[in-house]
Amino acid sequence: MHTRRIGDVEVSAIGLGGMPMSIEGRPDEARSIATIHAALDAGVTLIDTADAYHRDADEVGHNESLIAKALASHDLGRDVLVATKGGHLRPGDGSWTLDGSPRHLKQACEASLSRLGVEAIGLYQFHRPDPRVPYADSVGAVRELLDEGKIRLAGISNANPDQIRLANEILGGRLVSVQNQFSPAFRSSEPELRLCDELGIAFLPWSPLGGISRAGELGSAHAPFARIAQAHGVSPQRATLAWMLAKSPVVVPIPGASRPETIRDSAAATELVLGADEIAELDGA
Ligand SMILES: NC(=O)c1ccc[n+]([C@@H]2O[C@H](COP(=O)([O-])OP(=O)(O)OC[C@H]3O[C@@H](n4cnc5c(N)ncnc54)[C@H](OP(=O)(O)O)[C@@H]3O)[C@@H](O)[C@H]2O)c1
Asked: Of 124, 214, 232, 271, whose CB is crowded by the most CB atoms within 10 A?
């Protein structure tokens, strides 16, 4: 498995997105644990999660608890960077709400620390800007968590270029990652990806395969990806991740999975090298 860097931490170039194992349509716990263990066995050393990855109102942090359990029951678990987030909430009716207030972020971080069973969170990401709270205040809370040693690395998510610059300034140049939506169907985060490349900040594409309900259709919905995948004898999903990895050394995709075979297939994308002509074709597709 090839590696990349998030701050000073070396991680697998493909991470595991934990969301499908905890929201609506999730599998039973045994399959989720098997999926996380399959990721570790394949060399994955980055797992993305959030306190808001849960289904019902009374199970905040379902995904964090699941990951902690899976890591504790696997020999390789200790070397994994767990990247969690705060600032989103799920009231239990399927919706996603926001609270980017410093008070909430600090409480949320404490709760995540306890669920993950660690003294410091590997990577803590401010999940999404809250229009009711000045962005600088939300990121200021993350800076305090960093200064207090409650988190080892600080990241943001769903941010535009101005917010990336502002966050990096507030964090005193210590912003290590930006997690934005990016996939063959959703490319409007290209400016953020390019800015991260320029600043040497990791860029984590979320829903890299088009999202939980669309990932299976990737081959039929995007013909060039399907054709190039076929030429290499791999899945369209694997070809998509290889295309993303080729965009910049700061890119670290985090495909979600709820089955061992899908994360195994995605993890192998780090071994797939596409030709310059193929990358150019997919860039323009
Ligand atoms: N920051 C944010 O606001 C935000 C928002 C959304 C997501 N995220 C993060 O990004 C991660 C990824 O996004 P996502 O889970 O929404 O969507 P995604 O990664 O685009 O798609 C996930 C689905 O792809 C399928 N899949 C994965 N690898 C595959 C392969 N090689 N071949 C065929 N199917 C494959 C999985 O199927 P199976 O379930 O059958 O394994 C899974 O359900 C999330 O898990 C979460 O950690 C962050």
From this structure: 124
| Per-residue pLDDT reduced to its tens digit, 157-211 | 999 999 999 999 999 999 999 999 999 999 999 999 999 999 999 999 999 999 9
Residue whose C-alpha is closest to residue 251's, from 259, 260, 240, 262: 240
Within-domain flag for 284:
no
SS3 153: strand
**Angle at alpha carbon of residue 50, lines to 100 and 268, rounded to 5°:** 135
* Tokens describing residue 24: 């609506």
CA 215 to ligand 1 centroid distance, Å: 7
Look up the CATH number of the domain holding residue 62. Answer: 3.20.20.100
Average pLDDT of span 89-95: 92
Distance separating alpha carbons of residues 192 and 46, to the nearest angstrom: 21
Structure tokens at 117: 């069973």
pTM: predicted TM-score of the whole model, two decimal places: 0.98
- Rounded distance, CA 206 to CA 77, Å? 23
Q: Is residue 187 part of a domain?
A: yes
For the chain, the domain total comes to 1
- Residues at CB less than 6 angstroms from ligand 1: 17-20, 48, 128, 157-158, 179, 206-212, 215-216, 235, 237-238, 254-259, 262, 265-266
Structural domain boundaries, residue 16 = 3-218+248-272
Distance CA 215, CA 221 (A): 10
**Tokens encoding 102:** 């410093």
DSSP for 239-275, please give it.
HHHHHHHHH-TTB----B-SSHHHHHHHHGGGG----
**What are φ and ψ of residue 153, in 5° steps?**
-135, 150
